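thought: user wants a sequence for this fold. calling inverse folding tool.
action: design(structure=
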C-alpha cells in the first residue's frame, strides 16, 4: 500500500449501529484517529439500504471535524461525501481524480459488516470430535456465527437432521470429513441428508451455497448426490491426514461466498461494495485478522474478547495458531438470563461486595433482559452488571479452551522424558503462563466508568498466570483496523497502539496456593520494594508509557513465570491502573464463608482505588 495515503475512512455496519472512523497522517508521518461518528444501521424497513446509515455516520465525521480536530492536524471541516456517496481518490492504486483541496476526499475507504445478523453457518462432518471440530474452527475463524454442527456420530437420526436443516436456514453449509483416500460412504450419507432437507437460504431465491472440504476421492459422489439445486464449491480437504489441519482454503472460500451470496442479497450492499476501495469483510473476521497480524508482527501470544448484548466472541493467538469461538447465548442484555441459567445465581452473587437476596439479583437481571438498552442507575446496579460480566467471560473462555486445542486423533512423537507425562491428543492450546497480552472489548469493558474495573473483571474471569499486559479497546474500532490491516498494516498498527487499546498495565500473578497472610512474592527495583501476601491485590502506581526494571522474587511454592521458587528480572510498563500484583493464588478460589468473601471483595476494590458500596 502506498505511503502517499493521507486520509482513510473506515466503517463497521453493525446489527444496530454503523460506526465510522477517520484516520489521517500527521505532519510527523504517523497515522492517528481524527474523529469517530455513528448512526443507526438502516438495513431494515423503512430504509432497506445499508448505505443510508453509512452516509449518516460519515456526515457525523464531517460535522465533528468542523468543531474540533486533534492537535497537529489541519483545522476545518473534512469533505468526505460527494453526490451522496463516499468520496475517495484511489481504488486498486489508480488515480481517480485530483484532490481539489487538502481537506477533501479520502484516499482509501474500507468497511466491515455484521448487519442482517452477520454470517450464519452450519457445518457437517463425519466424526464430531475430529473433522466436524476442524470445520467448526474454519467457520468460526472466518467470522461466522455457528448455528449447529451435524455429524454421523452426533446421536441424531437422519430425519432429525433434515428437520434441523429446514428449521435453521443457514447462509452457507461447510461439509468436511474423511482424510484423503479415507471414508466416502459417510460423506455421501451426509450429502443425502442435505439434499433431502433442501434448505432455503435466508436471502432471496438463490441456490444454497455448500462448501465441500472433505476427502478428495468423494468429491464426484458428493456432487452427484447434491444435484443441481445446490451451489457446490470444492476446496482442499480441511483434514488431509489425521495429524494435519488445513483451514485457510475453506476460510477463504467462506469469505468469497459471504461477499457473493450473502452480502449481494442484503439491501444496499451492492452499492456499498462499489464504494469501497477493498472487499467488505465480516466484522468478527476483521477483529481476528487484526489480532493475528499484530501477534505475528510483535511475536506475542494474545487473548481477546468482545462481550456484546447477545453474544461473546473470544479470540486467541498462541504460537501463531489463531482461534475464535462465539458463545451465542452469553451476553449482557438480550442473553443476560442465559448467563444466569448457565452460571447459577450463587456464582454471580459471589462477586458482589455486599449482602443481597438472590431473588433480588434474579429480578434485576430479568429487568435488564426485557429492557436491554438500559444502563445501571446506581453503583449497586453497576456492581451487579460487573458480577454477571465475570461469569459470562469465564463461561465463554471455558468454551473457547474446549475448541482451541491440538488435533484429536493425531499421532504424537514423544521422547523418553514424556513417558510418565503422556498427555492425550486434543489438549487445549491456551497456556496462560505463555500469554503476553489480554485485550478486553465490548460495552461492559470498554465503557466501564473506571479502567480499574475493567482490569479487575478480566483478572477475576481469566485468572492470568505469570506476567501479562492487561488492555482495553477504548472505543471499539478493532473491526475497522482489522480490515485496514489487510491492506495497510502499518497505519492500522499505529492507530491500534496509540488510539485503540488503552493499557491498564502489566499484571504479575504467581501460580501456587498458600495460606492467608503468608508472603507470595517480593517486587524490588527503581525505588520499589513490595512484598505481597497470599490473598492480597496490590497496585504500584505507574503511568502509560512509563517503565520500571524490576526483580520479581516469588517464595518457594510459587511460580511467577521463571520456574517454581525462581526469581527473574523484567522491564514492566504501567498504564491507567499501574503495575498490578495478584497474590490470590492460581487456581484462584474465593473464600467459602459469605461474610469473609464480602470482606475480601471490598478489600480488593479498595486496592484498585475503587469506591465501596454502602
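)
observation: tool returned 614 residues.
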Amino acid at each position: 500500500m502506498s505511503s502517499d495515503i493521507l486520509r482513510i475512512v473506515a466503517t463497521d455496519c453493525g446489527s444496530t449501529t454503523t460506526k465510522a472512523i477517520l484516520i489521517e497522517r500527521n505532519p510527523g508521518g504517523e497515522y492517528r484517529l481524527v474523529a469517530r461518528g455513528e448512526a443507526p444501521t438502516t438495513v431494515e424497513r423503512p430504509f432497506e439500504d445499508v448505505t443510508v446509515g453509512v452516509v449518516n455516520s460519515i456526515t457525523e465525521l464531517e460535522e465533528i471535524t468542523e468543531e474540533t480536530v486533534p492537535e497537529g492536524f489541519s483545522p476545518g471541516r473534512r469533505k468526505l461525501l460527494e453526490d451522496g456517496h463516499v468520496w475517495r481518490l484511489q481504488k486498486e492504486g489508480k488515480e481517480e481524480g485530483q484532490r481539489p483541496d487538502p481537506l477533501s476526499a479520502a484516499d482509501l475507504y474500507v468497511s466491515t459488516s455484521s448487519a442482517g445478523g452477520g454470517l450464519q453457518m452450519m457445518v457437517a462432518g463425519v466424526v464430531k470430535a475430529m473433522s466436524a471440530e476442524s470445520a467448526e474452527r474454519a467457520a468460526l475463524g472466518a467470522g461466522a456465527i455457528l448455528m449447529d454442527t451435524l455429524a454421523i456420530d452426533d446421536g441424531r437420526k437422519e430425519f432429525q437432521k433434515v428437520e434441523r436443516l429446514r428449521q435453521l436456514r443457514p447462509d452457507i453449509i461447510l461439509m468436511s470429513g474423511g482424510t484423503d483416500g479415507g471414508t466416502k460412504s459417510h460423506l455421501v450419507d451426509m450429502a443425502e441428508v442435505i439434499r433431502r432437507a433442501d434448505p432455503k437460504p435466508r436471502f432471496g431465491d438463490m441456490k444454497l451455497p455448500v462448501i465441500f472440504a472433505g476427502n478428495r476421492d468423494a468429491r464426484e459422489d458428493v456432487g452427484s448426490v447434491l444435484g443441481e439445486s445446490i451451489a457446490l464449491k470444492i476446496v482442499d480437504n480441511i483434514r488431509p491426514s489425521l495429524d494435519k489441519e488445513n483451514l485457510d482454503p475453506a476460510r477463504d472460500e467462506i469469505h468469497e461466498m459471504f461477499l457473493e451470496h450473502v452480502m449481494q442479497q442484503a439491501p444496499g450492499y451492492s452499492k456499498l461494495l462499489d464504494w469501497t476501495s477493498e472487499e467488505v469483510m465480516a466484522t468478527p473476521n476483521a477483529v481476528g485478522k487484526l489480532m493475528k497480524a499484530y501477534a505475528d508482527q510483535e511475536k506475542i501470544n494474545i487473548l481477546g474478547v468482545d462481550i456484546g448484548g447477545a453474544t461473546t466472541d473470544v479470540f486467541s493467538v498462541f504460537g501463531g495458531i489463531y482461534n475464535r469461538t462465539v458463545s451465542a447465548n452469553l451476553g449482557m442484555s438480550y442473553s443476560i438470563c442465559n448467563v444466569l441459567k448457565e452460571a447459577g445465581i450463587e456464582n454471580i452473587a459471589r462477586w458482589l461486595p455486599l449482602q443481597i437476596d438472590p431473588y433480588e439479583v434474579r429480578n434485576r437481571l430479568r429487568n435488564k433482559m426485557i429492557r436491554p438498552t438500559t444502563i445501571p442507575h446506581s453503583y449497586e446496579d453497576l456492581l451487579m452488571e460487573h458480577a454477571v460480566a465475570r461469569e459470562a467471560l469465564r463461561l465463554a473462555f471455558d468454551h473457547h479452551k474446549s475448541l482451541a486445542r491440538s488435533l484429536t486423533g493425531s499421532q504424537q512423537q514423544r521422547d523418553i522424558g514424556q513417558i510418565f507425562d503422556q498427555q492425550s491428543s486434543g489438549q487445549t492450546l491456551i497456556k496462560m503462563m505463555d500469554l503476553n497480552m489480554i485485550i478486553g472489548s465490548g460495552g461492559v469493558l470498554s465503557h466501564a466508568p473506571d479502567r480499574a474495573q475493567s482490569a479487575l473483571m478480566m483478572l477475576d474471569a481469566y485468572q492470568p498466570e505469570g506476567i501479562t499486559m492487561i488492555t482495553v479497546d477504548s472505543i471499539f474500532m478493532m473491526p475497522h483496523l482489522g480490515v485496514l490491516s489487510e491492506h495497510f498494516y502499518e497505519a492500522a498498527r499505529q492507530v491500534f497502539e496509540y488510539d485503540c487499546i488503552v493499557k491498564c498495565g502489566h499484571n504479575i500473578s504467581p501460580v501456587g496456593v498458600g495460606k492467608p497472610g503468608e508472603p507470595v512474592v517480593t517486587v524490588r527495583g527503581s525505588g520499589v520494594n513490595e512484598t505481597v501476601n497470599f490473598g492480597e491485590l496490590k497496585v504500584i502506581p505507574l503511568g502509560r508509557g512509563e517503565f520500571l526494571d524490576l526483580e520479581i522474587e516469588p517464595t518457594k511454592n510459587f511460580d511467577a513465570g521463571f520456574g517454581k521458587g525462581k526469581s527473574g528480572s523484567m522491564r514492566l510498563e504501567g498504564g491507567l491502573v499501574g503495575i498490578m500484583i495478584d497474590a490470590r493464588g492460581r487456581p484462584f478460589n474465593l473464600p467459602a464463608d459469605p461474610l469473609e468473601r464480602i470482606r475480601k471483595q471490598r478489600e480488593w476494590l479498595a486496592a484498585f482505588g475503587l469506591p465501596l458500596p454502602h
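thought: summarizing for user.
answer: Here is the designed sequence. The chain has a mean pLDDT of 88.
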